[in-house]
Write a structure and sequence with these properties.
The protein is mainly alpha-helical and about 220 residues long. It has helices at about 60-65, 75-100, 100-110, 120-150, 155-175, 180-195, 200-215. Helix 2 packs antiparallel against helix 4. The radius of gyration is 40 Å and the shape is elongated. About 15% of the residues are buried.
Amino acid sequence: MTTPSDPNQPGGYGNQPEYGGQPGGYGGQPGMTPPGGNPGYQPGGYGNPSGLPNFPAAPQSMESQSQQPAINPPGSITGSFWCYVAAAVVSVIGALLFLGQKQTVANALRNANTTGLTEAQIQSAAGTVVTTALVLAIIFAALYVFFSFKLRAGRNWARIVLTIVAVLSLLSLLLNGGNLSILGLIGDLAAVVGAILSYTPQSNQYISATKMRLRGGGYQ
């Protein structure tokens, strides 16, 4: 029978391996591994004697990327902006004046009445026509102004949308030039002039510079 204090007997205190001496051991105890499961674990890891983990540098914030000098629009873009705004205002004024043409619309409906509409129905239809025209004119003007502000900010997509509107206005001038009212003529001409100004060399440079600036800041 052996005693734990006998150094000559196997398993005695004097026969235990030194710290880390047994493969796979940790602290001299078989089967125990250091944190992380690596027998050769050392606090701090390789090349980091401080023991603190290494983290990647924080990416540059979007705000700092976009902090670039603002680009002022050239005179051609400003002129184009005001031409489009003028066209929007003219369209609303024309719709307001059209409200006074309710009786003219009613007379036209009465002369073209082939379905036996009553007078009350004709008046109601005339009121619906002029009211709808006003609502559409307000919506159109609001979109016109919105795209105009985006154009002044250098957005090329807004210039494309306004160009399409200007082309339609030009077609209106060519096809109905003799039947347009003074306000309609002014509005269409303002849209055409605005489109021309938005494609001058200064305008193209401004929009290109704005596009590069927005891309550099991570915006589209």
